Amino acid sequence: MGTESTSSSAHAAIRAAIRAVPPGRVSSYGAIAARAGLRGRARLVGRVLREGDSPALPWHRVLHSDGRLAAPPGTALAREQMRRLAAEGVPVRKGRVAREYFIDGDDLDVLLWRG
DNA sequence: AGGATGACGGGAG
DNA sequence: ACTCCCGCCATCC
């Protein structure tokens, strides 16, 4: 198998956590990591998204903890993310999404991503 | 082997 | 609200 790197199980857990975010809602890298049992590894989430070998991965629903989009303003990626969010009814003001659209809090297990 | 990088986060000034 | 800084960690050079 190809050069295995980092626990592929960790990557799988992260992907599952990302897919668990329903349309019309968003979450943060840190929250996704925590939900995947990898608290503190927010950067690992970013790494997994960057690989992007998962077609059904709703990467656009993953934002910074402060509500900012993942990519810097002006980039094609940021525009695409904003477009996808808008398509799901998530308003983006000045490159950020309001806290009320986030499904992360203190205990993700309690929230259960429900809307 | 060592230093820099980054789709991060949180605290501090 | 913004900038700077440090912690974390897999990759990259």
Write the layout of secondary structure elements.
Elements: H1 8-19, E1 27-28, H2 29-35, H3 42-51, E2 62-63, H4 76-87, H5 108-111
Parallel strand pairs: 1-2
Helix pairs in contact: 2-3
The chain binds a DNA duplex (13 and 13 nucleotides) through α2, α3 and β2.
Fold and architecture overview:
It contains five helices and two strands; from the N terminus they run H-E-H-H-E-H-H. The chain has helices at residues 8-19, 29-35, 42-51, 76-87, 108-111; strands spanning 27-28, 62-63. Strands 1-2 form a two-stranded parallel ribbon. The model has no long low-confidence stretch (mean pLDDT 86). The radius of gyration is 14 Å and the shape is globular. It is mainly α and 115 residues long. It starts with 7 loop residues before the first helix and ends with a helix. Helix 2 packs across helix 3. The chain has a single domain, classed as Winged helix-like DNA-binding domain superfamily/Winged helix DNA-binding domain (Arc Repressor Mutant, subunit A, Orthogonal Bundle). The chain binds a DNA duplex (13 and 13 nucleotides) through helix 2, helix 3 and strand 2.
Structural key phrases:
globular, two-stranded parallel sheet, Arc Repressor Mutant, subunit A, mainly alpha, about 120 residues, DNA-binding
Q: Total number of β-strand segments?
A: 2
Return the domain count: 1
Net shape: globular
Low-pLDDT stretches are none
Q: Do you know the CATH topology?
A: Arc Repressor Mutant, subunit A
The helicity comes to 25-40%
Q: Tell me the CATH architecture.
A: Orthogonal Bundle
Number of helices: 5
Any idea of the CATH class?
A: Mainly Alpha
What is the CATH H-level superfamily?
Winged helix-like DNA-binding domain superfamily/Winged helix DNA-binding domain
The main sheet comes to: 2 strands, parallel
Distance between termini?
A: 40 Å
- Mean pLDDT equals 86
Radius of gyration: 14 Å
Strand order of the largest sheet: 1-2
Order of helices and strands: HEHHEHH
Helix and strand composition category: mainly alpha
Strand content: under 5%
